[in-house]
């Protein structure tokens, strides 16, 4: 048997890749190029040899800071390009690589240019907005000033009292300069202030004016009829033109302060119609000039941004890679001569040759006189865990890693989950109609795989796309289990031939509850369609699915125990095999393996034995005769023997292993024998959380080991019962899915179809489609997915999986994301 097992081929995914701890001694002149080439290879995980230093105390802190500043500038350019609505595709022709210093200077020049253009554009836009508001006020306020011509107030006084309080308005026309320097004013006449304000502030503004002047004012308003850009938010806002008539210098001061507080812009409007027209012409002329200037500035700015945008992606990639290189160089140490950098890291054993070739190429390309020294070190700590995956297996590996990363080179549950996970999902979701819907969704994701993989997706869509192959397998297994259950949206079909049952006579042709007799061989595949709607449908399906759930559960838990044997054998822990694997197999199969055997015999023989009675009285009165519940000859003595084996297995799990570990410790550390310290009996059991090959000189705590073994034994004994019962969720969710589907079909679709009304039928079809899509295809899918997840994480992986390792995270440019900046 041992020779047969030794000859079995090793699986790529069964255990993680063998890892090697290596040391690099790199000359300073070739350090940057060597790290760059290693980042392109992506098969070496560096250890941080400067963990005690802060980021600012490290050797290449200034270079990292420079890269961070360049990243900020590139993000600024990207925001500016997005804000301008430009679509800059990278140039197709190959651009020469640019040095980091040259790129830094280019980015500084481009940033200065863009910031200066933004500043000028902002000033011009502010001036343009003020002139536009002035034009609107001139047009709208003139209507309110017609009635004021009866007052004996001179033009100079009017213009002096019409206040222009916007300090940002510059370069006024000559007429406006004249209007802003009036002669002596009439302090007792009727005055007015005109301006413009945001619509959402108007009500509070008018109320405040009324309170401040105690009602001694006349407030007129009118919409501006066109939206104006708010310079602070760059959004178009709706504004209202107002004219406030008042009397007195004190009221004027209050009104101006209120206008300033509410952000209202005030503009001078002469009462003289001739002057109004002249001002309007001058403002329109200035607006026309400013529009041309703004358009020219925008075109120039877009041209500058386009020139940056063509190379933006390449520059961002370059800066991101350079920052990653310097971050990695900061993890290396200088040697005593300050001429070489010393680094350590983990790499897969198969990658040593590739890494050596890459380092040789880096030495040659950098014209270094001294090559990089690359040699293997003796590992003390536990290596990282690295599984090579593909598009199909990656999603299943992520599901397992969400529970815990496998310990270095322990059995990988993802290999088996590729089949068992979608199958257990399908047992709960079995309906080949619903499976076809899932299949269409998975095929859509696969058909658009290339396009979707290059897009930035939302969190939900990214999760669906990442699990597209999981959904595909779940759909295929759901179709398979649906064919076994013979359910297509809860409707049975005679796919594989006719039913094995027929009516006893013509009176029962329309009744499925009585009179059916078996007249031919059983239905060749799956459940006979005649069970649907029969009086015994629910008891039959309950019995079938419940027993099937137990069989599947016992099979998967046995697989977990077998994997624990291979783990113990791989790590050389004979104690785990003798005092853990063997008694656990005996206990589990003496009770629940025997139950599975009874289920199979009952199915094969068609016996009417009550298995509940058999299992209960196996414990209460094992010597009692079975009577009608006897399924085979010798069943009673077999039950007694299995019961004794189960009772013996409990102390077998509990007592021998702690005493055996104590004996091994005494022999090793008191000089009676000198064993190899690297064996895993002590490593895995005495100090399960320590690194492999750690310090073994610590005091052996027998009480702690015994308590740990006691907890482990009790957990397994009680867990055997609870885990077996936990697999009954396969039956419960399958039944719930089937019954929900039946209710929606019979009580919604068929009920609506029974009416001779097209509207009711359409409503019934819509409700049925909605219930199928959102309840059966979304909620039930999620429910079955989570229950299958629980069965794998707890019931299956709990038998053998430690999950206390850490992932292999190599330095690789391909793994650098935009968020790493």
UniProtKB/TrEMBL annotation:
Protein's cellular compartments: Membrane
InterPro entries linked: V-ATPase_116kDa_su, V-type_ATPase_116kDa_su_euka
A GO CC term attached to the entry: membrane
Keyword set, alphabetical order: Coiled coil, Hydrogen ion transport, Ion transport, Membrane, Transmembrane, Transmembrane helix, Transport
Superkingdom of this protein's organism: Eukaryota
Membrane protein topology class: Multi-pass membrane protein
Coiled coil: 100-127
Transmembrane segments: 423-446, 467-485, 548-566, 586-603, 638-655, 758-779
GO biological process, alphabetically ordered: proton transmembrane transport
PANTHER family associated with the record: V-TYPE PROTON ATPASE SUBUNIT A1, VACUOLAR PROTON ATPASES
Family classification: Belongs to the V-ATPase 116 kDa subunit family.
The protein's role, per its UniProt record: Essential component of the vacuolar proton pump (V-ATPase), a multimeric enzyme that catalyzes the translocation of protons across the membranes. Required for assembly and activity of the V-ATPase.
Protein's name in the database: V-type proton ATPase subunit a
Protein's organism: Cardamine amara subsp. amara
């Amino acid at each position: 048997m041992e020779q047969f097992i030794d000859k079995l081929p090793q699986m790529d995914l069964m255990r993680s890749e063998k890892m090697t701890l290596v040391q690099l001694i790199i000359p300073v002149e070739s350090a940057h190029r060597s790290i760059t080439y290693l980042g392109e290879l992506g098969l070496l995980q560096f250890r941080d040899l400067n963990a005690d230093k802060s980021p600012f105390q490290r050797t290449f802190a200034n270079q990292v800071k420079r890269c961070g500043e360049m990243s900020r500038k590139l993000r600024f350019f990207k925001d500016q390009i997005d804000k301008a609505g430009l679509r800059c595709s990278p140039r197709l022709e190959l651009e020469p690589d640019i040095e980091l210093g040259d790129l830094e200077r280019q980015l500084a020049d481009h940033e200065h240019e863009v910031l200066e253009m933004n500043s000028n554009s902002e000033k011009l836009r502010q001036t343009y907005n003020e002139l536009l508001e002035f034009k609107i006020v001139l047009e709208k306020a003139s209507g309110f000033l017609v009635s004021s011509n009866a007052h004996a107030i001179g033009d100079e006084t009017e213009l002096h009292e019409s206040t222009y309080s916007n300090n940002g308005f510059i370069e006024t026309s000559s007429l406006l300069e004249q209007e802003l320097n009036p002669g002596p004013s009439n302090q007792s006449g009727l005055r007015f202030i005109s301006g413009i304000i945001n619509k959402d502030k108007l009500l509070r503004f008018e109320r405040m004016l009324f309170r401040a002047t105690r009602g001694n004012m006349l407030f007129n308003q009118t919409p501006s009829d066109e939206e104006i850009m708010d310079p602070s938010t760059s959004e178009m806002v709706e504004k209202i033109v107002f004219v406030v008539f008042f009397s007195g210098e004190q009221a004027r001061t209050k009104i101006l302060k209120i206008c300033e507080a509410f952000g209202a812009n005030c503009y001078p409007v002469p009462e003289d119609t001739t002057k109004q027209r002249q001002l309007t012409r001058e403002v329109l002329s200035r607006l026309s000039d400013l529009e041309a200037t703004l358009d020219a500035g925008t075109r120039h700015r877009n041209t500058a941004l386009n020139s940056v945008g063509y190379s933006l992606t390449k520059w961002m990639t370059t800066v991101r890679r350079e920052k990653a290189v310097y971050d990695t160089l900061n993890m290396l140490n200088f040697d005593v001569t300050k001429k070489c950098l010393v680094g350590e890291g983990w790499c897969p054993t198969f990658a040593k040759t590739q890494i050596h070739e890459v380092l040789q190429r880096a030495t040659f390309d950098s014209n270094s006189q001294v090559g990089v020294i690359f040699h293997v070190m003796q590992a003390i700590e536990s290596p990282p865990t690295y599984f090579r995956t593909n598009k199909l297996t990656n999603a299943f590996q992520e599901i397992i890693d969400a529970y815990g990363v496998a310990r270095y080179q322990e059995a990988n549950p993802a290999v088996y989950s590729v089949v068992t996970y979608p199958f257990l999902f399908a047992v709960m979701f079995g309906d080949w109609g619903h499976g076809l819907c899932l299949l269409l969704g998975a095929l859509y994701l696969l058909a658009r795989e290339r396009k979707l993989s290059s897009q930035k997706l939302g969190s939900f869509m990214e999760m669906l796309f990442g699990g597209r192959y999981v959904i595909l397998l779940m759909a295929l297994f759901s179709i398979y289990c649906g064919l076994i259950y013979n359910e297509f949206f809860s409707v049975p079909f005679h796919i594989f031939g006719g039913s094995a049952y027929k009516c006893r006579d013509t009176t029962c042709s329309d009744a499925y509850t009585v009179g059916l007799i078996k007249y031919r061989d059983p239905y060749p595949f799956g459940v006979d369609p005649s069970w649907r709607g029969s009086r015994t449908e629910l008891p039959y399906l309950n019995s079938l699915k419940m027993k099937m759930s137990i069989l599947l559960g016992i099979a998967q838990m046995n697989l977990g125990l077998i994997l624990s044997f291979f783990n113990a054998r791989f790590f050389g822990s004979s104690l785990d095999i003798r005092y853990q694997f063997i008694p656990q197999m005996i206990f589990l199969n003496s009770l629940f393996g025997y139950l599975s055997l009874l289920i199979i015999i009952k199915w094969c023989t068609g016996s009417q034995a009550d298995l509940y009675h058999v299992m209960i009285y196996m414990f209460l009165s094992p010597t009692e005769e079975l009577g009608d519940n006897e399924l085979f000859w010798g069943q009673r003595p077999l039950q007694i023997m299995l019961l004794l084996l189960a009772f013996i297995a409990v102390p077998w799990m509990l007592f021998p292993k702690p005493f055996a570990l104590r004996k091994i410790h005494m022999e090793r550390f008191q000089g009676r024998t000198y064993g190899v310290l690297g064996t895993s009996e002590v490593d895995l059991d005495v100090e399960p959380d320590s690194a492999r090959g750690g310090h073994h000189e610590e005091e052996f705590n027998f009480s702690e080991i015994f308590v740990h073994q006691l907890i482990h034994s009790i957990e397994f004994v009680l867990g055997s019962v609870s885990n077996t019962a936990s697999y009954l969720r396969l039956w419960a969710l399958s039944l719930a899915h089937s019954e929900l589907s039946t209710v929606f079909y019979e009580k919604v679709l068929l009920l609506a179809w029974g009416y001779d009304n097209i509207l009711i039928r359409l409503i019934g079809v819509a409700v049925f489609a909605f219930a199928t899509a959102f309840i059966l295809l979304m909620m039930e899918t999620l429910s079955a997915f989570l229950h299958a997840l629980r069965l794998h994480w707890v019931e299956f992986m709990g038998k053998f999986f430690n999950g206390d390792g850490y992932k292999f995270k190599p330095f690789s440019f391909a793994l650098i994301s935009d968020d790493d900046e």
